[in-house]
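Issue 218. Parser rejects a valid record. Input:
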Amino acid sequence: MVDVAGPVGGLRERKKAQVRAAIQREGRRLFAANGFEDTTVEAIAAACDISAATVYRYFPTKEDIVFADTAPVCDDLLRRLRERPQDRSAVDVLRSFIGDHIIAPDERRLLRERLIAGDEQLRSHYRARLAEIEDAMAAAIAGDLGTAPDDLRPRLAAATVMAALAAAKDHARRVRGQAASLEEVAAVLDEAVAFLEAGLDAMSQAGAR
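Output the parser choked on:
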């Protein structure tokens, strides 16, 4: 007897992946042409030759289409922080994560940044995602410092982590331009990570007194 469950299941998953990719592709195209607010889910569905209900099955909100590329990356960082071994600090995990995911700003990322800058709804969505990451960083840093997650020091350190990464990205863009090489961007981020490590060491020593 021939087992057809595998091939059929594989075909079904490929079809789903193709539909998902088409929604993202057409969504980006329409967002770039018409803006986020003036692009409807119905228009994206029509461009993909599917129903609006199908779009919503893949992306519950229009915002989810904009952030489709970033969601897996953020989830990867949260997973690494949650599953990190005891001998790895939160900053070690962050450094490894940056090394694995750093890329030069491409057309997709630049479009997403323009959309976020021009729409309060997207900015709110983005801030909520950053807050989730900051909470995870605070919990991980609290473990490194031996304090409760709601203690001031890990919360302050996590906020500093987020601010430092944002400042490093902005510095790389401002000084080296959007065409900065991966090596140039990585060098700026390495400086930010070194600054964070020094600050965490100082916090740890202060807490030990």
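Fixed in the parser; the record now loads. The domain at 69-208 is CATH 1.10.357.10 (Tetracycline Repressor; domain 2).
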